[in-house]
Every structure is written in C-alpha cells, then in structure tokens.
C-alpha cells in the first residue's frame, strides 16, 4: 500500500504561497518549491516546529532538469507516495512596458514560468495525482490548482509581456482539466482579480480599507475548499476578488 499522500506547492513566497503552504500543511506533509531558498526556509522551520512536516527544495520551474531533481529529492524524503494536492503558484513579476520597447527575452521570460513551467510541473505531478485518484481510501479527489490573474482573461495595454503567458496558463489548465477529470483528478484555474495583500504591495492602496485587497489566507482557504469538492462537483475555474475591486 502506498504511503500517506503529500501536497506540492511551487511558487512559495512570503505572501500567497506561504499561506497556501500553511493551510495544506494542516492536512498533509508538504513539499515547497521556490527558486530562492530564502522564500521557503523560514516557512519550513515554522511548519516542522508546529507539528507538521515540510521539505523545501530550490527549484527553477522553467527547467525540466531542475524540476526532475526536485521530485527526486521529494521522493527521497517522503518515499514514492501519491499526491493529494498540487498548486502551481509560480509567476513572473508583471511589468508595464510599451510593446515596441519590450525585448524578445522579456516577452519570453513570462512564458518560461507561466506556460513552460506550468507544463513541466503538471507532467511531474500528474502521475502522483492519478495514483491518489485510484486509491479507495482517498478522503478528497486529488487536486491540481493553477494561480492565474486578471491578465488571464483581460489584456490591458502595456501588459502584453504578462497577459500573454497568463492567457496560455489558463488554456493549459482548462485543457488538462478536460483530459484528466475522467481519471478523477480535479483541475482548477483561479483568477486572482485584484491586489493581493503581500509585503510587495504593502504601500499600494494604503489609503483604502482592508477590503480593497485580497487576503492571502482567504485565497488559501478557497484553494482548500476547491480541494474538498467531491467528484460530483468540480469547479474548474473560479474568480477571486476583494469586496471593493472594480470589475
């Protein structure tokens, strides 16, 4: 019999990724992937000291070699176990730039993470998710969640370098959802439409009330609720925005 399933989160930082990791760590051992170790080291210590189990792995999600090495480390730590939940939260930082000033390398950088990276990550986690789907004792259907943005569905001026790969991520997510739902894997794309309340945005909208930003803990709870859905009720796309967001 396979061991206890794990959750894998890629794109762990001090805001949304950390909140997702803490929420899923209450139920599963978690593997936390990020390019920079400083993004997960403190969080790994926090989870392990609070009674959970966490492993951090420095990973370049745009590199197939790096992702393969990360999953080899995960297997060394947890054994060959199924995957209960996988969350793709990695993203290139958005930048506003006129199209005629955008370099090919800058344009490609977004695709390396949001499109190519999501593809590589999906190939890495889907076998473990399918294995979990085949278990009779699985409490919830295995879940693969992709973090999107307003740019996933709305192409604003000066944002072509960000919105193009985000559109591609959404298309990839919906395609995977249609392919793997019959196998029992729940795939969802979350459109985060608004400013997320993280250290990077602390000074943004500072004159507005808290309801003008999305709380990372609430995003994490929404992802957890998606994970709990039964096979008779799969939400494949969800909009998340704060109360005061204009849309």
TrEMBL record:
Transmembrane segments: none annotated. InterPro entries: NAD(P)-bd_dom_sf, SDR_fam. This is NAD(P)-binding protein.
């Amino acid at each position: 019999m396979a061991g206890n399933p794990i959750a894998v989160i890629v794109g762990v930082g001090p805001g949304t990724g950390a909140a997702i990791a803490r929420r899923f760590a209450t139920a599963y051992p978690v593997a936390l992937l990020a390019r920079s170790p400083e993004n997960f080291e403190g969080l790994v210590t926090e989870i392990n000291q609070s009674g959970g189990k966490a492993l951090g792995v420095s990973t370049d999600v745009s590199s197939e070699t790096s992702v393969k090495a990360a999953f080899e480390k995960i297997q060394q730590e947890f054994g060959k176990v199924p995957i209960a939940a996988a969350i793709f939260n990695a993203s290139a930082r958005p930048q506003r730039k006129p199209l005629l000033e955008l370099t090919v390398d800058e344009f490609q950088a977004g695709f390396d993470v949001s499109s190519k990276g999501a593809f590589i990550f999906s190939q890495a986690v889907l076998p473990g998710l399918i294995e979990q789907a085949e278990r009779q004792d699985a409490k919830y259907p295995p879940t693969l969640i992709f973090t999107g943005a307003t740019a996933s569905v709305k192409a604003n001026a000066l944002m072509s370098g960000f919105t193009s790969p985000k559109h591609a991520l959404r298309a990839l997510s919906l395609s995977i959802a249609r392919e793997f739902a019959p196998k029992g894997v729940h795939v969802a794309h979350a459109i985060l439409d608004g400013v997320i309340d993280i250290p990077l945005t602390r000074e943004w909208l500072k004159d507005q009330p808290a309801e003008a930003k999305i709380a990372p803990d609430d995003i994490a709870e929404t992802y957890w609720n998606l994970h709990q859905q039964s096979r008779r009720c799969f939400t494949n796309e969800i909009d998340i925005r704060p109360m005061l967001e204009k849309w």
